[in-house]
Amino acid sequence: MALVAEGLEVGYKNKPSILQNLHLEVREGEFLAVLGPNGSGKSTLLRTLAGVLQPRKGSVLLDGQSTKRFSPENRSRQIGYLPQEIAPALPYRVDEVVALGVKSIARDDAKNIALEIEKALREVDAHSLSGQLLGELSGGEKRRVLLAGVLAQKPRFLLLDEPASMLDLGHQSATFRTLSRLSKEGLGIICATHDPNLALAHASHMALVDKGKIQAIGKPRAVLASREFKSLYGEAVRFLELPDGNMAVLPK
Predict the structure, then answer these.
(1) pLDDT single digits (tens) 125-154
(2) Which of 233, 229, 194 is nearest to 214 (CA)?
(3) Each residue of 200-238: pLDDT tens digit?
(4) Are 68 and 59 in contact (CB under 8 A)?
(5) CA-to-CA distance for 143 and 140, rounded, in angstroms?
(6) What is the pTM of this model?
(7) Three-state SS for 176?
(8) From the candidate CATH numbers 3.40.50.300, 1.10.10.60, 3.40.630.30, 3.30.420.40, the one assigned to the domain spanning 2-251
């Protein structure tokens, strides 16, 4: 029960490959935070795992099967994906956006669809937005609604590109707490983020990506203590041990 990247080499058109012989495995119930500098390949990795990009070499496997064999509908039932960029708002209400996620996995009666919409919106603290037009929401509110739409698909694996961007501090923390809980309930999560503190507090694993390769992977504290992390960020950050035994990463 794993989502596997096997020797991925990925690039855009005639440009050099961004991902180079990349290997990665995430199992159901794991929450992997992916950190790395801008341009390191984090978004490209997620887009490839989601099937948006096709690799030049290597493959993406789900339970040992190439995801190329999956229809788009079947893939969306297995792998949910929320990109970093938010598309221009269509003239949809919030509940209609989330309903698209519900209806992508099952044909159900109106009552059950309404219950699933409400459940997904409550997961991301966006139930009060139901009925509003997506285009009238703030960037952070839109992101929460779109995340609810992906959760409504009930995927086995969830791919998130900077899910906390544009969110206020309270919703950043709440979003990562929700993701941590969902992973403990069996959802496999791969989340690209620039925030090591959110990753440290909530993720079960961390991967450091640079120059299209996994430079370090393991438990968050071990990755933050690695020479690879220090090589990339050592001059820019300092570590602070907190009274409760936890650790914080601060910019210098």
Answers:
(1) 999 999 999 989 999 999 999 999 999 999
(2) 229
(3) 999 999 999 999 999 999 999 999 999 999 999 988 899
(4) yes
(5) 5
(6) 0.93
(7) helix
(8) 3.40.50.300
Residue 158's DSSP bridge partners are 80, 189
Helix residue spans in the chain (DSSP H) = 42-49, 72-78, 94-103, 110-123, 139-151, 169-184, 196-202, 220-224, 227-233
What angle do the packed helices 94-103 and 139-151 form, to 10 degrees? 20
Cβ atoms 157, 81 nearer than 8 A? no
Q: What would you measure as the largest C-alpha separation in the chain, in angstroms? A: 57
Count of beta carbons in the 10 Å neighbourhood of residue 247: 17
Structure tokens given for 207: 């991967």
145: which strand partners? none
Residue 201 region, left (φ>0) first, then alpha (ψ -120 to 50), else beta?
A: alpha
Domain spans, the chain = 2-251
Instruction: Give dist(CA 130, CA 128) in Å, integer.
Output: 6
Query: What whole-number distance in Å separates Cα of residue 15 and Cα of residue 136?
Result: 38
pLDDT in tens, 230-250: 999 988 899 998 898 888 999
Q: Are strands 205-210 and 31-35 parallel, antiparallel or unpaired?
A: parallel
The candidate with the shortest Cα–Cα distance to 79, out of 167, 150, 184, 139, is: 150
